[in-house]
Amino acid sequence: LSALRQSVVLCWTEKATSQLLLEPDWDSTLQICDYIRQCDVQARYAVSAVMKRIAVENPHVAMFAVQVLEAMMKNCGSVIHNEVATRDFMEFFKEQVNRKPDPVKGKILELIQVWAHAFRNEPQYKIIQDTLTILKVEGHSFPSLRVADAMFFSEKAPEWKDGETCQHCRVQFGTFNRKHHCRACGNIFCARCSAKSTIIPKFGIEKEVRVCDPCFEDLTKQGGA
Ligand SMILES: O=P(O)(O)O[C@@H]1[C@H](O)[C@H](OP(=O)(O)O)[C@@H](O)[C@H](O)[C@H]1O
Ligand SMILES: [Zn+2]
Ligand SMILES: [Zn+2]
Questions:
Q1: Is residue 13 very low, low, confident or very high in pLDDT (cuts 50, 70, 90)?
Q2: Residue 75, by phi and psi: left (phi above 0), alpha (psi -120 to 50) or beta?
Q3: Minimal CA–CA distance to 157: which of 41, 43, 78?
Q4: Ligand 1 atom 10: residue of nearest CA
Q5: Does residue 38's CB lie within 6 angstroms of at least one atom of ligand 1?
Q6: pTM for this one?
Q7: Are 80 and 95 in contact (CB under 8 A)?
Q8: Crossing angle, helix 59-75 and helix 104-118, to 10 degrees?
Q9: Could you tell me if the CB of 183 is within 6 A of ligand 1?
Q10: Are 60 and 103 contacting, i.e. CB atoms less than 8 angstroms apart?
Q11: Among the four residues 11, 56, 74, 159, which has the most C-beta atoms within 10 Å?
């Protein structure tokens, strides 16, 4: 079954990074994030699928792949952070910096800088800071760190909680009462209590995704006000 799921992520990754795309395919990108968050696929496998697409010669495909990686880092939490903040991945990313033309190269440098800033107080991700330092010593110039990026990044999408009853109305889940998750708070709800959807800019989610009623109020009240 995991092989099936892995091939599903591979085809979503190819769809989200197709050379035929004229702009990022947010639906496919967020579908990949959902698969990872639902633990339907190993983060390690999803990252290796994106690495393959970043390494592709075609700069459009590589750019879309870097943007998929950015969304995964923003939305899938520590399972992805742990896969990217590794020697192997950082070696791969440094190689790509020296191989890719702009704007792919600039995007990679921007991400390394944003991630180094976002994880500046997390020693287990020190390798990202070290990579930034090495690239600066190698003479790469970095875009000025956009505060918005760093702020976005500090708001990491919450891990999804599990449970047998709806967090809001306490109904018991079952065959005819399926579990659903709110993308904003990560809590688990019945269909009735999570029937609304909205975008979540702070997590970089630009398309409408399922949220619970209280989060819908919070997110739309701010936006609407
Ligand atoms: O319908 P199921 O086979 O139970 O699967 C559930 C759906 O995939 C839900 O997606 P959704 O939140 O987008 O509805 C997800 O939140 C739950 O964790 C899964 O258990
Ligand atoms: Zn409910
Ligand atoms: Zn919620």
A1: very high
A2: alpha
A3: 78
A4: 180
A5: yes
A6: 0.70
A7: no
A8: 10
A9: no
A10: no
A11: 74
